[in-house]
Write a structure and sequence with these properties.
With about 190 residues, this protein is mainly alpha-helical.
Length: about 190
């Protein structure tokens, strides 16, 4: 059920929010590794990242009644919860550091601020990578070359041996698709 080609569907959204435990298990198997990766990159502590991952799924399951399916999907909702739990964890760490600093011990609060900014960047990167993967080939490769390698349309066309117009069309359609999908991600 969780093979690499496994896609989350509106049917699975409905089953999740109806309380189907098998769907919770499928969601956990599918998204827990990504949630853990976001958490680990944000807090740089394996134990805390594991706790965050567990907390995300406990919250998703416990508060599933509060989700509005018109505003997004289970995966987007889970990653929204992840963002909140990571930020809560970083805030708690910051409060702890503040108390320690009040007692005369050294702490670097700038590190917290940088980490909080990194949470959003990592979460956005994971979401973008997933959406690019869903675009299929060659559109996914074309957009990765444009985003991550900073290649021009012409360079991509030469590299992939595709007509320039085809590359431009794939970029335009891919960006339009991503704008809609990621716009909903940020709204969630």
């Amino acid at each position: 059920m969780t093979s690499p080609g496994f896609e989350w569907t509106p049917q699975l959204d409905a089953q999740f929010f109806a309380g189907d435990e098998e769907t919770l298990i499928a969601a956990y198997r599918r998204f827990a590794p990504l949630v853990y990766t976001v958490a680990l990159r944000s807090v740089d502590d394996r134990a805390v990242a594991a706790d965050i991952t567990q907390d995300v799924f406990v919250r998703a399951w416990r508060f599933r009644d509060s989700f509005d399916p018109r505003s997004g999907t289970v995966p987007r909702w889970i990653f929204g919860i992840c963002r909140n739990v990571v930020n809560d964890s970083l805030s708690a760490r910051s409060r702890h550091n503040h108390l320690v600093a009040r007692w005369g011990m050294h702490t670097d609060l700038r590190n917290y601020r940088n980490r909080a900014r990194e949470v959003d960047a990592v979460t956005d990167r994971v979401a973008l990578d997933r959406e690019l993967q869903l675009l299929g080939e060659p559109r996914s490769s074309i957009l990765r070359l444009a985003f991550y390698e900073d290649l021009t349309h012409q360079q991509i066309a030469v590299l992939l041996n595709l007509p320039l117009g085809t590359v431009k069309s794939h970029i335009r359609r891919g960006l339009t698709h991503l704008r809609g999908r990621l716009g909903a991600w940020h709204a969630a």
